[in-house]
Amino acid sequence: MISLILTGHGRIASGIQEAITQVFGAQADLHVVDFPDGMGTGDLEARLATVLGACTGETVFFTDLLGGSPFRIASTLAQARPGTEVIAGMNLSMFAEMLFERDDIATAAEFRQRAIEAGQGGITSLADRLARQQKRAEAVDGL
């Protein structure tokens, strides 16, 4: 099973974990490191390194912002540990979809790619969804 580490500014990581637990229950190998106001980057790095050290096998960091401190620190740690990937721009839809695929994916690199696709696919609007449904209905009617 691929280990997952959520991290980001404020309490976004624990918020996503809380939502996942509410909907799907507690999850194994899911770790959270928040970066609240007032925490220094040295403390964040130490906590992320400790959590990463406790993970066995392939690991994926989910971070909130590309270029932010959690992303930069996770990236530095990942480059020093083979089989570790970093994703920026996490969202609940992406994370929920990938949570149940991690047992079927062999490598963190493959997991990263599929997570990015899931994240992009989960971003939509009501108008776009209704338009797609209408096109499908018209295609069925035209048969």
From TrEMBL:
Keywords: Cytoplasm, Kinase, Phosphotransferase system, Sugar transport, Transferase, Transport. It holds the Pfam family EIIA-man. It comes from the Bacteria. InterPro entries: Bacterial_PTS_sugar_comp, PTS_EIIA_man-typ, PTS_EIIA_man-typ_sf, PTS_IIA_man. SUPFAM superfamilies: PTS system fructose IIA component-like (SSF53062). It is found in: Cytoplasm. Residues 1-123 form the PTS EIIA type-4 domain. NCBIfam families: AgaF (NF040761). This is PTS sugar transporter subunit IIA.
